[in-house]
Amino acid sequence: MRLVSILLIFLTYSGYAQYKCATDEITRKHANINEAYARGLEQMDSLASQFESGLMSQSERTAKKIIIPVVVHVVYRNEEDNIGMEQIHSQIDVLNRDFNWQQEDKYKIPELWRDLGAASGFEFRLADRDPDGNFTNGVTRKQTDIEDIANVDNVGGAIQYYNSAKGGTDPWYQPHYLNIWVCEIGDRVLGYTYLPSANEVEPNDGIVIEPRAFGTTGRAAAPYTGGRTLVHEMGHYFGLRHLWGDEEGQCTNTDYMDDTPWQAEPNFKCSSFPSKSCPSEPDGDMFMNFMDYADDTCSLLFTKNQIEYMQLVIRTAKVTLIHSEAVTGVSELGNQGVHIFPNPSSGVFQIIRSNPAEMDFFIYNSIGDQILTGKTTEPQLSIDLTKHAPGIYFFKSEQGSESLVLQNK
Ligand SMILES: [Zn+2]
Q1: CB within 10 Å: which end of the chain, N or C, has fewer?
Q2: Which residues contact 293 (CB under 8 A, 6 or more apart)?
Q3: pTM of the full structure
Q4: Distance 163 CA to ligand 1 centre (A)
Q5: Are residues 172 and 290 in the same domain?
Q6: Contact criterion met (CB below 8 Å) for 319 and 66
Q7: Minimum mean pLDDT among 3-17, 170-184, 288-302, 376-390: which range?
């Protein structure tokens, strides 16, 4: 008897711990109170059906490099959740890797599905211009005293992570910025987003994620240290559904993708092949797909159709992101005639100056300690950080500042 009750407690607990994405719930909730959003969702459903039935021409399915400007709003209650730039950069790196089929762990995908991987051509970059055209590092910070500010129950009420008057941070103009709020959600939800609507963007458009499931370092906590919670949410942001469709329990809910098997239930942790939830599928579930619920170490794949569908969505419902001027590639320093390259570097950064005036400069590490300082009148100099640990550093001078990314050698 005692054994039974211990077992029950364990099962209940692990069921909770594994509830990771509230996208379906939040999307449904918002559609119920907002008719225009709901109509736009239906339009996206018919776009997805057309896609699934092969009505898109080949030219509409071609990959091109697309730069996606990102702003990260850190809304923290405890100082430890005021996450550092290193954690933010580590997350951007994971997105760029996994969206471009460069993940080194793809060998873990069962062989019969490994050929389905593809590169999207999406390149996620922190914005270098804010909505007023000023230089930015693509990150905002705000302290709040509200616990679990992005709790699913708060959405639309008196507390709103996306409203500065209600404790959160206002979004940057969503047609031009992909907004990510890193804040407490609570209730064991790790993240959520709103599925795209063909209608005008909503004030809450964007992705919400817990600091402990964001990036690969800093506050990221096991088993969420692979940055793949955001890869999953990013899939939703560009229109992808869970593999079981928008409701669990049946083998007939579509995810609109022809190259993913029918699936009735999520897979958690690390399943082994074959993991079957629908009798009609001889090979079982594609449990290592990013749109399932596997742990970060076992979440590995967007299929070709998923990639093509996201490319279609960015050229339709999210097309304004492509025409954004939020990423110019010109830094504050560059604008003042100071150029740093290569950046990232594995040790030595070159600085080229077109301005002959004497320049004082300072280099700080990610916790704000000054590690180097200098003065120059030369048009070119090199800064050697070989002896320092890989990570994010900051160059500061009167002409401006810039992040330096020091990579592993
Ligand atoms: Zn999800």
Answers
A1: N
A2: 18, 20, 21, 266, 267, 268
A3: 0.85
A4: 23
A5: yes
A6: no
A7: 3-17
Kindly give the distance from the C-alpha atom of residue 331 to the centroid of ligand 1, in angstroms, as a whole number. Answer: 35
Report the distance separating Cα 154 and Cα 206, nearest Å. 16
- Residue 391 is encoded by which pair of tokens? 């990570």
pLDDT digits (tens, 9 = 90+) for 209-258: 999 999 999 999 999 999 999 999 999 999 999 999 988 899 999 999 99
Peptide bond into 131 cis (omega under 30): no
Ligand 1 centre to CA of 114 (Å) is: 22
Q: What mean pLDDT value characterizes the chain? A: 89
Question: What stretch of H or E contains 323?
Answer: none
Whether 210 is catalytic is: no
Look at residue 127 and give its three-state secondary structure.
Answer: coil
Catalytic residue among 86, 184, 210, 233: 233
Q: Is the pLDDT of residue 7 over 90?
A: no
Q: Is there a contact between 113 and 286 (Cβ–Cβ < 8 Å)?
A: yes
Whether residue 231 sits in one domain with residue 173: yes
Asked if 88 and 204 sit in the same domain, the reply is yes
Q: Which domain holds residue 287?
A: 21-321
Cβ-based neighbours of 129, under 8 Å, separated by 6 or more: 135, 136, 325, 326, 327, 328
- 28 near 192, Cβ under 8 Å? no
